[in-house]
Design the sequence.
């Protein structure tokens, strides 16, 4: 069905400013529309209105002169872990059919059909918690199909997936969306840019500033996309360019004869790996090749066979190297321990500097990463991008010699990703070794001095483009 | 839970097909029976037959049952000890300081232990033969529990392993950060509070998002169909009959073939 909203006014209760004032949007039946905009532009809020989540489940006051939305619309949300109700695949899909009062006798066939369409080849009784992220999102698409709605609303469906699964997921979505009206909110748009009919760009004030076909935008308005910091297919042509890096000679980390295991299976063997001061390393590899495990093993957070030496000293416990080597996990929230953004950075600095200087440095660092205006807030209150930057700031504040980041640019828009890259480059210039686990070829093909590629249970090393 | 069970289950019996509500109801009646049974001989036979029922009907691999049995015995022995060591009685068997074991207290202790064992065996049989989802489905279908509650509970159970995983990651994250900062920020009560706040805030947000997702999937308290058709069947009759027979047989054996010369443990 066609969707139309006229003269929408919406304000979040706890804010002073209206999110939308006088917003008009019309989406025709069967159209595929991509919505872009910087964080805070209200894309997700709008998506929640289009399918009736507001006001059905979210109590946000709004008014509109015309509100023709599809309250039966099917959603695919970004977080695979918070959209399923039931423990197993078949029960989750049956849940949708039960909601629609489909007779029990017809359920099994419908469920089989849906799984076939999304290419989810798994035991029906498989617990959802055992599925990979990509498989969970396929399951979410299958449930959206079973909902039998003509409208499909996609709220960053691939933002928590690795690059390898993203392509497949969009392919699946395109296979099933032919006769449906589709609205997509997404950061990374390479896979779908030329597959949608319209691209709508919103600005930070919740206004629609552009509504064109993707071809027209590519030809005439790339500057505008860069200005708002949203990803587009040619984003990396505008990426920051750094000087080539000449790593130092001093060996910081040496790994010998290490074996990582998952269960009883060998995950990764490393005969010898030497990491020097001032290197910028990337770690790449398919899902399940042991990238994150390697990081945890290096920190002695999981059990492994083999030897690790940091600056010549054998590492036995995490405590031996904590501080010298600092990992930033994929989920930054788990690393926060204080009640304000300011304290989060300050407690690292107070160990290294006298109080006055520590306060000074703390303020400078917060300004530097653009968090000074939220320094009084609780670390869990700020946005995802801000959290990511804060976790980098806490890492920097500890003055480590090696920093390891697990997918640091995950789910960030173009602007924030480039900012992070600049911060990393500055650390490298200061002689810090930066190691990044990343799937992003835009990064791995430009910046590292050395690329570590994990495949066939071993590491292959390739000289990176960032090497002098 | 149910999924882990499938790996250690060798075969299925009629108890798997018995309605969960029947099992729960019989469990309550069995509790009353055990509490009112004062003849240790009868209780002994009841416990033994229940053990046989567990081994034969649960379909669980024997080595897992043996581990569990050992645990039950240890816990049972502990609970019995309070009664054994400090109970009143006239025929002293052993005395050491505060500890005073009499024949009466010994028998009473063992009696209490057997009560516990009987219920544990039956409880284990129920758990090993019941899927949690089936419990909620029969609560909805047979007892008209509102779907809102049933599905919320099932969703909550799904969250438990996710929260556990999150807690493990949080511990790792803190282990790395701990040496960098003053320990007053991370240890003791403060460390505990921030841990709880972090985990809670994650869970609350996840629950909120899930709530939105459930309603977006057109879930409401209105009429619905059910994928699992739980009902009462001949298996329920069989199960009830089995427990009744077990009770009578242990009565009979306990009376006719007494092992000890005590008929009332009180």
Sequence:
């Amino acid at each position: 069905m066609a969707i139309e909203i006229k003269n929408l006014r919406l304000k979040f209760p706890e804010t002073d400013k209206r999110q939308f004032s006088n917003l008009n949007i019309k989406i025709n039946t069967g159209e595929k529309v991509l919505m872009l905009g910087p964080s805070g532009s209200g894309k997700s809020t709008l998506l929640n209105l289009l399918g009736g989540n507001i006001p059905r489940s979210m109590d946000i006051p709004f008014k509109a002169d015309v509100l023709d939305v599809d309250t039966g619309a099917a959603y695919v949300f970004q977080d695979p872990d918070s959209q399923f109700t039931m423990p197993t695949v078949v029960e989750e899909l049956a849940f949708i059919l039960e909601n629609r009062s489909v007779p029990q006798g017809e359920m099994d066939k419908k469920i089989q059909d849906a799984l076939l369409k999304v290419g989810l080849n798994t035991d029906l009784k498989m617990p959802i918690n055992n599925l990979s992220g990509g498989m969970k999102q396929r399951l979410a698409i299958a449930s959206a199909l079973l909902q039998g709605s003509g409208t499909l609303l996609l709220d960053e469906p691939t933002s928590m997936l690795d690059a390898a699964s993203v392509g497949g997921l969009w392919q699946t979505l395109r296979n099933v969306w032919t006769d449906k009206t589709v609205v997509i909110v997404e950061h990374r748009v390479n896979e779908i840019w030329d597959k949608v009919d319209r691209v709508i760009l919103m600005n930070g004030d919740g206004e629609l500033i552009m509504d064109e076909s993707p071809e027209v935008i590519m030809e005439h308005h790339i500057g505008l996309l860069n200005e708002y910091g949203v990803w587009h297919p040619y984003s990396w042509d505008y990426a920051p360019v750094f000087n080539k890096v000449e790593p130092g000679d001093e060996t910081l980390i040496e790994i010998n004869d290490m074996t990582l295991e998952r269960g009883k299976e060998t995950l990764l063997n490393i005969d010898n790996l030497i990491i020097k001061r001032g290197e910028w390393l990337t770690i790449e590899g398919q899902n399940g090749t042991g990238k994150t495990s390697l990081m945890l093993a290096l920190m002695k957070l999981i059990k492994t066979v083999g030897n690790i030496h940091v600056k010549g000293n054998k590492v036995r416990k995490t405590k031996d190297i904590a501080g010298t080597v600092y990992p930033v996990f994929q989920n930054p929230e788990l690393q926060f321990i204080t009640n304000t953004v300011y304290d989060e950075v300050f407690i690292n600095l107070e160990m290294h500097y006298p109080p006055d200087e520590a306060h000074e440095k703390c303020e400078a660092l917060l300004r530097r990463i653009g968090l000074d205006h939220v320094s009084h807030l609780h670390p869990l209150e700020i946005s995802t991008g801000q959290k990511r930057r804060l976790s980098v700031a806490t890492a920097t504040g500890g003055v480590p010699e090696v920093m390891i980041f697990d997918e640091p640019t995950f789910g960030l828009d173009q602007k924030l990703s480039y900012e992070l890259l600049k911060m990393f480059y500055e650390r490298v210039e200061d002689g810090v070794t930066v190691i990044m686990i990343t799937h992003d070829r835009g990064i791995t093909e430009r910046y590292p001095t050395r690329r570590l590629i994990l495949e066939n249970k071993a590491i292959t090393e390739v000289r990176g483009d960032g090497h002098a | 839970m149910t999924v882990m069970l499938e790996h250690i289950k060798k075969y299925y019996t009629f108890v798997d097909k018995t309605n969960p509500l029947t099992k729960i109801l019989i469990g309550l009646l069995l509790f009353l029976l055990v509490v009112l049974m004062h003849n240790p001989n009868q209780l002994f036979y009841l416990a033994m037959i229940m053990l046989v029922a567990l081994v034969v009907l649960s379909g669980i691999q024997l080595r897992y049952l043996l581990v569990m049995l050992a645990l039950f015995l240890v816990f049972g022995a502990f609970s019995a000890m309070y009664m054994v060591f400090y109970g009143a009685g006239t025929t002293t068997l052993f005395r050491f300081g505060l500890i005073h074991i009499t024949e009466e207290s010994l028998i009473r202790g063992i009696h209490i232990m057997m009560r516990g064992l009987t219920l544990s065996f039956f409880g284990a049989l129920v758990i090993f033969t019941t899927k949690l989802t089936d419990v909620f489905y029969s609560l909805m279908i047979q007892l008209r529990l509102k779907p809102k509650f049933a599905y919320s509970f099932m969703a909550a159970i799904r969250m438990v392993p996710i929260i556990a995983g999150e807690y493990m990651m949080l511990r790792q994250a803190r282990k790395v950060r701990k040496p960098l900062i003053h320990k007053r920020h991370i240890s003791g009560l403060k460390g505990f509070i921030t841990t709880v706040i972090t985990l809670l805030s994650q869970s609350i947000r996840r629950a909120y998002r899930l709530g939105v997702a459930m309603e977006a999937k057109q879930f409401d308290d209105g009429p619905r169909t059910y994928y699992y058709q739980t009902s009462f069947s001949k298996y329920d009759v069989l199960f009830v009959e089995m427990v009744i027979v077990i009770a009578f047989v242990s009565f009979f054996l306990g009376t006719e073939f007494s092992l000890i010369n005590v008929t009332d443990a009180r």
Chain B touches chain A through 55 residues (CB under 8 Å).
